[in-house]
Amino acid sequence: MTSKLRTIFMGTPEFAVPSLRVLADATELRLIVTQPDRPSGRGRRLEPPPVKRIAAELGVDVFQPETVKGQAFRARIAALAPDVVVTAAFGRILGRRLLDLPRLGCLNVHASLLPAYRGAAPVAWAIRNGEEVSGVSVMRMDVGLDTGPVYLTERVPILAEETAGELTVRLARAGAEILARVLSDLPSGLLPMPQDDALASEAPPLTKEEGRIDWSRNARAVHAHVRGMHPWPCATTTLGDDVVKVHRSAIVDEGGIFSARPGVVLAQTRAGVDVACGEGVVRLVELQMPGKKRLGAPAFHAGMRLERGVVLG
To answer: Most exposed among 23, 231, 236, 246, judged by the fewest C-beta atoms under 10 Å?
Structure first.
């Protein structure tokens, strides 16, 4: 009987959980490394990351270092003699000496079809840029940012109204599935394929500023922006001095060019707020005023009326 691979898992958010469960089921999982608990919510209470909560359920030791650099961290990993280290949305960069430590290397589950969208926010940028297909890759890590050779990929179509948060859930499941296949074949000599750097694109970390809607873009691009920025940082626009979050939108007119300047409110009904874009019209169907709850279009219409001609942004 073949012995199980000795593994260590490194990950933090919900995206990492399906891959963690694969390791727990298919390997001898010796340690889970995740980021420290962080303040969350209005009360700023310390909250454990999702991976830590699952670790407690699995009964596996958890390590939450502030840094993965230095001899102390490497020594702890080395003492466990892992065959493989697997990362998924860990949020930390591993150095060369750590990457060389496991017998079969360090694997990463990345939410794009590499070499496209290397970086911290591949799902958000893919949707924002109007892509129709995304996917997930399992790669062998090197010292570059998502530049290592790829073992396996899985294409995942992006649904028409799907947000980044919704697509991330599907990609997490797909990533776990192909990770299981890679781990099964790795001991028999499975080899990864080098990436074509000429086809690479970047997906840098998002900032709150990235959420701001540019109404001069066409309706399809504005709608894609709203979907790509959800749930964080969330698409925003201004109404006077207020910053309004836009959680959901819809395309009303894709190609029309109106005399109204981009950002002008054309109409408000119980169905939503219609806003002129550079080309076409977008309907805002779920909004949130500062300090208030997010509201669907009927509730927003009942509590606040925007006059025709008001300019957003």
So the answer is: 231
